[in-house]
Amino acid sequence: MGKITGFLEFDRKVEAYKPVEERIKNYKEFTVPLKEKELKDQGARCMDCGIPFCHSGCPLGNLIPDFNDAVYRGKWEKASEILHSTNNFPEFTGRLCPAPCEEACVLGINEDPVSIENIEKNIVEAAFKKGWITAKPPLTRTGKKIAVVGSGPAGLAAAQQLNRAGHTVTVFERDQKAGGLLRYGIPDFKMEKQVIDRRLKVLEEEGIVFNCGVHVGIDIEADELKNDFDAIVLSGGATVRRKLPIEGADLKGVVQAMDFLGQNNKRVDGIKDLGNEIKATDKDVIVIGGGDTGSDCIGTSFRHGAASVSNFEIMPMATTDRPEDQPWPFWPMRLRTSSSHKEGAERFFSISTKRFVGDSEGNLTGLVTSEVEWIKKPGQRPELKEVEGTEKEWKCELALLALGFTGSEKTVAEQLGLELDARTNVKASESDYRTNVPGIFVAGDQRRGQSLIVWAISEGRQAAHHVDSFLMGESKLPLKGEGDLPRI
Ligand SMILES: Cc1cc2nc3c(=O)[nH]c(=O)nc-3n(C[C@H](O)[C@H](O)[C@H](O)COP(=O)(O)OP(=O)(O)OC[C@H]3O[C@@H](n4cnc5c(N)ncnc54)[C@H](O)[C@@H]3O)c2cc1C
Ligand code: SF4
Questions:
Q1: What pLDDT, on the 0 to 100 scale, is given for residue 376?
Q2: Could you give the CA distance from residue 7 to residue 11 in angstroms, rounded to a whole number?
Q3: Cα of 208 from ligand 1 centre, angstroms
Q4: Is residue 352 within 8 Å of residue 313, measured between CB atoms?
Q5: How far apart are CA 442 and CA 16, in angstroms?
Q6: DSSP alpha helix (H) spans, 275-410
Q7: What φ, ψ does residue 330 adopt, rounded to 5°?
Q8: Across the chain, what does the average pLDDT equal?
C-alpha cells in the first residue's frame, strides 16, 4: 500500500494563491488547484504508518492513509467513499480546517507533513464534479421525529446521520438560510456559499426538512418542540460576543466583528436592506483580536478598499516553530499567518487597547494603546502588566472587535430547564451528549464553546449515534473513526 519511496521523491506541494492585487477585487475563492499528477504525487508522500498519528490527530478519525493511497493510485471514487465514511462535509474541512492531522503527521517530525487537507478538498471536489455525490435517502422510516435546532456544521452532520438511520428530521434555523457560521461568519473568499448550497440540496433530497427564519425560543417556545418531537438536538453555536468595555466603546465606528462579517456576507449574497452600512472603504481599520475572526475581518476590509489595516493581539508573538513544551504530535500554539494577513495587514503583538477616541459628533477617530508584558509565576496563570511609558495614539475610523465568544445563548436552555457548565455552554458529557433533560442532546460549539468546524461535524455525528440509541435501544450509526462504508 502506498509508494514506499514517495516521501523521498516528492516535496510537499499545496495550492498556490492568485496574486493579492487580483484577488482582493472580489469575494471569490482564490486558490489555484494542483494538477492530477501533482495530487497523486502528494498522496504518494504518505508513508502508510503502522500507527497513523494523523488519524488520531483528526477529531473525526478520518481514515487518512487509506484515502491518500487511493489518490496515489488514481482511484478517486474509492477515495471519496473512504473520506465520506467518517466526514459528512469534507468540502468544508478541506477548505477551512487548520488541519490538526497535519501537525500530527509522522512525516512532519523531520520533513514537511503530507498535504492531507488539500488532498481531502480535491477528493470531494472530484466527487461532486463526477456526480458521485447523490442523495441516498433511507430505505425505511422509523416513525420517530427529531428536531435539530441550528444549521451549522454540527446540526447538519447530526441531521444527516439521524436521517440515514431512518428518523424524520426537521432542522430549525433562525437565519434566512442554513449553514451557521459557514454562511454568515466565514467570508466567501474562504468558502463560496454555493459550496454549502450544493450540499444542502443533497440533504433536502434525502428527506431532511429545513425550517429557516424560525427562532426557537422566540418564534416557537422550546417546550412546543418537546411535545412535537421524540428527541431534540441543540446545535445553536456559541454566539455571545466578548465585549471591550473601555472608554469610547459606544462611538460610531467601534463595531463587533460578527456584525461586520455577517452584514458583508449577506451583501455578497445580494440581500438588500441591511440597516446601517458598515464599510471599511478608505478608512484606517484596526482589527482587535488575532484569531480566525480577526483574520476574516482583515481580508474583508481589504476587499472594501480600506486605506490601511492593522491587527492587534494582546498575546506575545508566538514562534513559527513548535514551542519546546508542545512537541509532536500535539497541536502547537505557533504563529499562524493566514492568506488575509498576507494581503498587507500590519500585525502588532503584546498590545492592549486602553480607550477609543472620538470627535464631537460621536465618530471614532482613533484609539490609545499601551504595550503589555505577561509575567509568569510558577503554578499560576500568567499576569498581564502594562509597560510604563508605552502609551500611543493611533488614527482609526473603524475598529473591529474580534475578541472571541463567551458562551452560548441562554433562552432555549432556560425554557427547557437545561443545566449550563462553568463557561455557560449547555452541559453534556462527551460520552453521550445528553443534557440533564431526557431526550434533549447538545452538540458543537453550544456544548464545547467556540471551536472548529471539524469538531462541530464530529460532535454532530457522535450525538446522532446517542440520539439513535436513545430512541431505538441501539445504534448502527458509526462513532468516531468507525467508517460506515460505502456511503457518499
Ligand atoms: C468569523 C469566524 C471564522 C471562523 N473560521 C473558521 C475556520 O476557518 N476554520 C474552522 O474550523 N473554524 C472556524 N470558525 C469556527 C467555526 O465556524 C465554528 O466552530 C463552527 O461553525 C461551529 O459549528 P456549530 O454547528 O456548532 O455552530 P454554528 O456554526 O455557530 O451554527 C449555529 C446555528 O444555530 C442557529 N441558532 C442558534 N440559536 C438558534 C435558535 N434558538 N433557533 C434557531 N436557530 C438557532 C444560528 O443562527 C446558527 O446558524 C470560525 C468562526 C468565526 C466566528
Ligand atoms: S502520519 Fe502522515 S505519513 Fe503517516 S499515515 Fe498519516 S498522513 Fe501518512
A1: 85
A2: 7
A3: 20
A4: no
A5: 38
A6: 292-304
A7: -75, 160
A8: 95
Going by their DSSP bridges, the two strands 308-312 and 364-375 should be labelled as unpaired
423, amino acid identity:
R
- Contacts with 313 (C-beta within 8 Å, 6 or more apart), sequence order: 289, 290, 294, 347, 348, 349, 350, 351
Q: What φ, ψ does residue 220 adopt, rounded to 5°?
A: -130, 135
Residue nearest to atom 1 of ligand 2 (CA): 105
Nearest to 347 by CA among 316, 373, 322: 316
Q: Is the dihedral of CA 74, 80, 81, 83 positive or negative?
A: positive
Phi, psi of 311 (to 5 degrees): -130, 125
Tens-digit pLDDT profile for residues 29-65: 999 999 999 999 999 999 999 999 999 899 999 999 9
| Ligand nearest to the Cα of 102, by number | 2
Residues 6+ apart with CB under 8 A from 146: 162, 167, 168, 169, 170, 229, 230, 231, 232, 233, 467, 471
Q: How many residues does the chain have?
A: 488
The whole model's pTM is what?
0.97
- Residue by residue, DSSP assigns 205-221 as HTT-EEEET--BTTTB-
Amino acid at 405: F
Whether 52 is in the pocket of ligand 2, judged by its Cβ within 6 Å, is: yes
